[in-house]
Design a protein that fits this description.
The chain is of the alpha/beta class. 27% of the residues lie in helices and 26% in strands. It has two domains: 165 residues, Rossmann fold, CATH 3.40.50.620; 122 residues, Rossmann fold (3-Layer(aba) Sandwich), CATH 3.40.50.1220. A seven-stranded parallel beta sheet has the order 5-9-4-1-2-3-10, sandwiched between helices. A five-stranded parallel beta sheet has the order 12-11-13-14-15. α5 links the parallel β11 and β12.
């Protein structure tokens, strides 16, 4: 049984979401190949070749693949699946976009957000915003799986797999075209991969207050900044800050929630964090039910005190 993993990369290196997906793939089969799609992505292919457990790296490059549009990706991946029994990809925004199209063209059921591989046909995934776990056994001849990377350990370096260039020409012109990309540039760690995350909620009251409170704290801790959906919907923070069921799933070593009540949708995106610290003036806030450390206090008092202690240390 052979497995194909679609790499998550920035053209020069692969992100650790790829290493974690490879760990999941190796639990399905020891025969794991990695597909690097993009434009000018040879560096990422070389990086993928160094991951332990990888048998071979396939490199597909073309202008059409530069933005990983679902139509272009499916044109390359679907023919390749003749030689594979399963396709795994990280459950990133891109993976969630093209995997359903690939599954539909293969006429199989997609298995989404897998957190455990029981065997080659059986997988565990969360449902009901993470409040229950579902064990899925698939009899489909091909498996299309998205993996929640935060629940798997990253595959180590030390591999020396060969890199093979393959044809990446789309099968036909598609109506979907890339128009624009709005990216928030920051020197802070990427949210889904950060070791420390500080998140703010609607209680901060405004975008100005949000950044006034969160940015200095994040910079002091070397942390990424996150936000609840309520804060994003109110315009306090951009969409790519959102943590939760409809945002990003994170599992940092330290998660600090400031002014976040802890709605079930938010908890689904961060409750696997190793240590959770909550600051909220409502003693009955649901966030305290999952927090390792809870402080019932107004953030306007608590955060300055925290910053003062950090300055000392």
């Amino acid at each position: 049984m052979a497995v194909l993993v679609i790499a998550d990369h920035d053209n020069s290196t692969v992100r650790d979401t790829t290493n974690k997906t490879i760990t999941a793939a190796l639990a399905v089969s020891p025969e794991v190949d990695v597909l690097v799609l993009g434009e000018g992505a040879a560096g990422a292919a070389e990086a993928a070749a160094k991951i332990a457990g990888v048998r071979k790296v396939l490199l597909a490059e073309s202008p059409e693949l530069g933005r990983l549009l679902a139509e272009a990706v499916a044109d390359v991946v679907v023919p390749l699946m003749e030689g594979y029994d399963a396709l795994l990809t990280p459950a990133t925004a891109a993976g969630k976009n093209f995997s359903p199209r690939i599954a539909a063209l293969l006429d199989v059921m997609q298995i989404s957000d897998v957190i455990e591989v029981v065997d080659a046909n059986t997988f565990v995934r969360p449902i009901y915003a993470g409040n229950a776990l579902e064990t899925v056994q698939s009899s489909d001849p091909k498996k299309v799986i998205t993996v929640r990377p935060t629940t798997f350990k990253a595959a180590a370096e030390g591999g020396s797999a060969p890199v093979e260039a393959i044809s990446a020409k789309p099968a036909a012109p598609h109506q979907a075209k890339f128009v624009s990309d709005e990216v928030v540039k920051s020197d802070r760690p990427e949210l889904s991969a950060a070791k420390i995350v500080v998140s703010g909620g609607r209680a901060l009251g405004s975008a100005e207050e949000f950044h006034k409170v969160m940015d200095p704290l994040a910079d002091k801790l070397g942390a990424a900044v996150g936000a609840s959906r309520a804060a994003v919907d109110a315009g306090y923070a951009p969409n790519d800050y959102q943590v939760g069921q409809t945002g990003k799933v994170v599992a940092p070593a330290l998660y600090i929630a400031i002014g976040i009540s802890g709605a079930i949708q938010h908890l689904a995106g961060m409750k696997d964090s190793k240590t959770i610290v909550a600051i909220n003036k409502d003693p009955d806030a649901p966030i305290f039910q999952v927090a390792d450390y809870g402080l019932v206090a107004d953030y306007k008092t608590a955060v300055p005190e925290l910053m003062a202690e950090l300055e000392k240390g």
